[in-house]
Design a protein that fits this description.
Number of strands: 5
Distance between the termini: 25 Å
Strand content: 25-35%
Strand order of the largest sheet: 1-5-4-3-2
Radius of gyration: 13 Å
Number of domains: 1
Largest sheet: 5 strands, mixed
Length: about 110
C-alpha cells in the first residue's frame, strides 16, 4: 500500500494469539505458523515477516460498515524462518490517524 503510515503489531498479538496453541481462536493459526519455524519467544521475527507481507503483497481496501471499521486485506506469500513461504491473508485496520494495526493473519487454502 503506497503512502501507508506506520505499521503496529503488538507483541501480545503474536505471543498470546497467533503463536499460542492454547488460544481458543488462535490455536489452529498457531499450529500453522509454528510449523513454518516461527517461535513465540522471538515475536520480532514474525512481526518483521508480517510487515514485509504488508509492504510486498497487493492489498484491497475494504470499506467500513455500521459494525466494522475500514480494513486493509493483504494476500500473498509470507517469508518464514524455514523458507517455505506459505500464502497468508493479513488484515489491518487504521489506528490513530495514519497508523495501521494488525488485526489477524490466516493461512490461505491452496487453489
Amino acid at each position: 500500500m503506497s503512502g501507508s503510515g506506520p505499521l503496529r503489531i503488538p507483541n501480545d498479538k503474536i505471543v498470546f494469539y497467533l503463536l499460542n496453541v492454547d488460544h481458543p481462536k488462535g490455536g489452529p493459526k498457531a499450529r500453522f505458523f509454528l510449523s513454518f519455524g516461527f517461535d513465540p519467544t522471538k515475536p520480532g521475527i514474525m512481526a518483521d515477516a508480517l510487515i514485509g507481507h504488508f509492504l510486498l503483497n497487493p492489498g484491497t481496501l475494504v470499506p467500513s460498515t455500521p459494525v466494522t471499521p475500514e480494513r486493509w486485506v493483504v494476500e500473498g506469500p509470507l517469508h518464514t524462518p524455514d523458507g517455505r513461504d506459505p500464502r497468508v491473508r493479513s488484515v489491518w485496520q487504521p489506528e490513530e490517524g495514519t497508523a495501521w494495526r494488525l488485526v489477524t493473519a490466516v493461512p490461505l487454502t491452496r487453489r
